[in-house]
Amino acid sequence: MPHIGTQDNPAVSTIRILLVDDHPLVLEGISARLESEPGIEVIGQANNGQQALEKAAELKPDVVLMDISMPVMNGLEAAEHFKNDQPEARVLILSMHENREYIVKMIQSGAAGYVLKDVSSDELIRAIQTVHQGGTYFSAGASEALFSEFSKSDQPEKPDTGLTKREEMVLKLIAEGKVNKEVARALDISVRTVETHRQNIKQKLNIQTAAGLTKYALEHNLISL
Amino acid sequence: MPHIGTQDNPAVSTIRILLVDDHPLVLEGISARLESEPGIEVIGQANNGQQALEKAAELKPDVVLMDISMPVMNGLEAAEHFKNDQPEARVLILSMHENREYIVKMIQSGAAGYVLKDVSSDELIRAIQTVHQGGTYFSAGASEALFSEFSKSDQPEKPDTGLTKREEMVLKLIAEGKVNKEVARALDISVRTVETHRQNIKQKLNIQTAAGLTKYALEHNLISL
DNA sequence: CAATCTCTACGTATTACTACCTAGAATAGA
DNA sequence: TCTATTCTAGGTAGTAATACGTAGAGATTG
Fold first, then answer.
1. Closest-CA residue of chain A to B217
2. Which of A91, A93, A214, B170 could join B197 in a cystine, given CB atoms 3.0 to 4.6 angstroms apart?
3. Does A143 share its domain with A169?
4. What is the C-alpha to C-alpha distance for residues B73 and B49, in angstroms, rounded to an integer?
5. What's the Å distance between residue B78 CA and nucleotide C8 C1'?
6. Which pLDDT tens digits describe chain A residue by residue (225 residues)?
7. Both B36 and B122 in a single domain?
8. A152 CA → C16 C1’, Å
9. Pair (B119, B185) in one structural domain
């Protein structure tokens, strides 16, 4: 327990942690490891979300290190409550679920980070420090799960559009909002040629309108917003 | 400067860093600070994205710490190239831009993290360690910018377009690829009215073409892909 | 080398969109 | 209540896009 009036860590204040997990063993293990770390102090433990909220209200932890799956009140609900009732507390999720949905939900519920249980204790400590400083932390597996779609969505599959290069080029320019005349100028070809391309494109893609073309181009990442 | 052949850090291999920034002063400062950190080694520097790619190909850094705004080839483009050409290198963006668009784009371009230039050197080092271990790091400001909408994203915010409800409706239908006649039928109004709406919309948004309208609608979440 | 594909370009007619107006009815706000 | 806004609708003209053709030059390929 913290004492007052004597010399504590001078410059860096200790990060006060509330540990929440329904497995006593996990609780103990992590607690022991964290306690051995200077600058980190485990000020309390809880077995479920309900308890966590109560203890947090009393202890005012800096960081709440919490599991997701728990009885009584799971990490998701608990995170919601933390966001509303005790926004000062930074919630760091410690989970074994690598599921994207989970992670996104946790973020939306206000969690500041998400580490998988397979991380090293060093990494866990780094995560704690990060969220304490206001940052966001995702461990490798989590960030992968979280951003895999995100990042792949850049140029995912270039699914064979059936369009020729030239047609794609024309489509791209049209989708960007250029009129035929401008496209023609840009590609240094006749307006009629552009029209021909345009027609062929629409025929190939079975699209009728200009707006449809733009939508198509966006869907297929020929252009970006 | 690094030496070879003598005792380096034994268990933990050194994190080899390539620093990229177009400001020599920044380069020097960060480099000096990082060099003082055990476990981190600045193996090279570059002034722009182009150089960064070349040097990286040669030096094979673990982490590329890179600015966004640079001449010749900016961080965004460079990150793209890294993703494609040297995916082993983890790209950590060091930027002063707190803009959400920037951050999202960087992630989509394959960056493993994004730290604002106002972070402490301790935090920067933590970020480096994080991305090196495969994690994702966002500093406080960045994660805030990144997830503020995300968290709210239950209803993906509708920024005031200045359009009336009816105009939005028309715009939506147009953006979906409907021609005026279809819009008119859908809303049970005259084609002329749709045309009027269309004109007003274009005037309000300062957009000239139909394709532009679609793009606008997509950008502003009036419709989704 | 003939067949195919791609890119280029034009003709003609029709339809759609655009620009720039006016204007009435309904509604919301000061 | 007066006013501004919104939604409705139209006139007139010009510009752009579409539909449906044809067709030559150049590259690719079986």
1. A215
2. B170
3. no
4. 5
5. 36
6. 433 333 344 345 789 999 988 877 778 878 888 888 888 989 999 888 888 888 888 899 999 998 887 767 777 778 888 877 887 888 998 887 776 667 777 777 778 888 887 777 788 888 888 888 877 887 766 666 655 544 433 333 445 567 888 888 888 888 888 888 888 988 889 999 998 988 888 888 888 788 788 888 877 767 665
7. yes
8. 38
9. no
